[in-house]
Design a protein that fits this description.
The protein contains ten helices and two strands, in the order ββαααααααααα. Strand 1 and strand 2 form a beta hairpin. The N terminus is likely disordered. This is DUF3159 domain-containing protein. It holds the Pfam family DUF3159. Keywords: Membrane, Transmembrane, Transmembrane helix.
Length: about 240
Amino acid sequence: MTGQDDRGDETPLEPPRASDALGAALGDAARRMGLDPAEERSTGHVVWKAMGGWRGVLESVLPSLAFVVLFTLRPDALALALGVSVGVAAVFTVVRLVQKSPPSAALGGLVAAAAAAALALWTGRGEDNFVPGFLTNGLYGTALLVSALVGWSLIGLAAGFLMGEGTAWRADRRKRRVFFWLGIAWAALFFARLAAQLPLYFAGDVTALGTLKIVMGLPLFAPMVAVTWLAVRALYGRREG
């Protein structure tokens, strides 16, 4: 693409900065989750939508719960527990596809569940069903922590895009401070999961590990969403017009 200067000469347009592209991607993801601070919604409504409503709660809890219950009752039937867990995820995926949800959203959970089950079947260890979750928590926690420490908080990039100011928030000391601590708080959540669950993984306590995964999932995610939402709304106030 080309642009024109005041003389009418065509000059190449500069490619978008990486921070702008990343902010747009994060903002779009947040908006799809219902986390647009510009919308006039109650905090409860926003948190519930971010969790995906009842279907999101069931999709998050039931596959893991089915695995934990069946493995606890039949430790010698690992394949059965894994099969039922993946089967539950597959049912939710089919429902989403029938309702014409975006394929990526519909298939993401099933692919993750199948990959985790395949690893556990390959090793023959039930606790390995949770390894992909460890990797995800480590990746998210590290990205959030590093971005906050270097002054480019991922929370700030997403909020800046949603509120229409791009990266201009970095020139505001108060916003930088709030986004720094929000990034630290989210990173702490992901690292707390690892700190609590990894000892159970190495001890091979599948029942306790699965239970703790459920307890440290949505019950901790929901209040963090609420705090983030309220903090961003306090920073920007209500959008006029």
